[in-house]
Every structure is written in C-alpha cells, then in structure tokens.
Amino acid sequence: MQKLIQGIHRFQQESFRPLQGLFEQLSKGQNPETLFITCSDSRIDPNLLTRSKPGDLFILRNAGNIVPPHGAASGGEAATIEFAVAALGVKDIILCGHSHCGAMKGVLQPEQVASLPAVSSWLSHAETTRRIVKDNYGHLDGDRLLTATVEENVLVQLENLRTLPAVASGLLRGDLHVHGWVYKIETGEVFAYDLTCGQFVPVAQYQYPQGEIAVGRRDIDTI
Questions:
Q1: CA-based nearest residue to 212, from 162, 151, 165, 166
Q2: For a FRET experiment, which of 50, 98, 109, 161 has its CA 20 to 30 Å from that of 193?
Q3: What is the DSSP letter of 131?
Q4: What is the three-class DSSP state of 81?
Q5: What is the pLDDT of residues 84-99, one digit of tens each?
Q6: What strands lie across the sheet with 199-202, from one edge to the other?
C-alpha cells in the first residue's frame, strides 16, 4: 500500500502538473473515440500499450475479456458498452485478449476453478470458445493450445458483442467499427484479426477496413 501512496505523491508532483490543462479540460466532460475491452490481468495496461492519454480510451475490464451476449447476463458489461456507444459515441471498439490468460486456462481446465463458483459461472460465457477449441484443436497442447484458445475467445466475444442492440445499430449505420486484438505479454507484440486472410496478423502491418468487421471462422492456426 505504501508503494501506491508514494506513487500518488509522485503523480501529483511530477506527472499531473505538465498535464494540468488536459485534466482541467477533462473535468468538463469526456469524449473518447475508442472503447477498449480487455482482461483484468494486472500485466495489461491499455494506455501504456497504446501510448494514449487520459480521456482517449473508455475501458472495460473483466476476467477473460468476456462480453455476454444480449440477454444472457445482467452485469455491468452491457451497460458499459451501451453507454460508450450510445451516450459517448465511440467510433471503434477494440476487444483485446492476451497471452498466458488465466481465465482461458480455466476455460480449458474447469476443474482448476471448481472451488470458485462465481468464476466458474462467469466463464460459462466462454463455453462456445471451449467447444470450438475442443472440437478443432485436438492436435495442439501446452502454450500453443492456450494461444489458440485466447484467439478463438476474442472471435467468440466479438460475435457476442455484435448481439448488443447499441452495437448492432452502430454497425448497421456504419459509424461504429469493431476490432479483435491479441497482446503478447512477453514480446510486446499486438496482433489484429484480419478478416481477409482469417488470421491474426501484426497490427503494424494491418490496415483496418472502413466498414463492419464481420467475424468469421478462420483457418486452424495460431500466432
């Protein structure tokens, strides 16, 4: 705790003052262009990863970067997404998974979270991910299997995202775009799902299409 308190003092003395004008402007309201949905994992920092400033990202985090489909849950995910799209008018939604995801390990090995009933219930929203991996990735194991699970879960959750009314409406109008990313913790690399080739490709080499990304099943491969 002392480390955090010391960090606050350093923030106020070193970081806040150069950005005081920005924070004063942000105190009047927010206008983020991007909703960033990612895992609660402590190793992921969306602002650090994207080199974005306060006010740039509206961030939603939970275990496994999961988005329950419309009507499947009454948690805060649907409300947060609806607010970002309908009230704040974000133009892009990024759904970002990551390497070494503990939630996806729980999807693959549910017995590991059997003593955590709330976690087990939450991961049921990734049951489609588990089934896809079970039926299509029997030739993989270890880290390669986990990577495939992380990638497929991003695609599954993008499909769930598109069932939410505010998102579906924005996509139909063409003023909202959704993107699937995977962040590799150990290398700092970010991969984006490219519909044209059905694979995750380095984000620096990928130009987003100016239209809806319709999520489709891909060739069996992993980054």
A1: 162
A2: 109
A3: H
A4: helix
A5: 999 999 999 999 999 9
A6: 57-62, 34-39, 92-98, 177-184, 189-194, 199-202
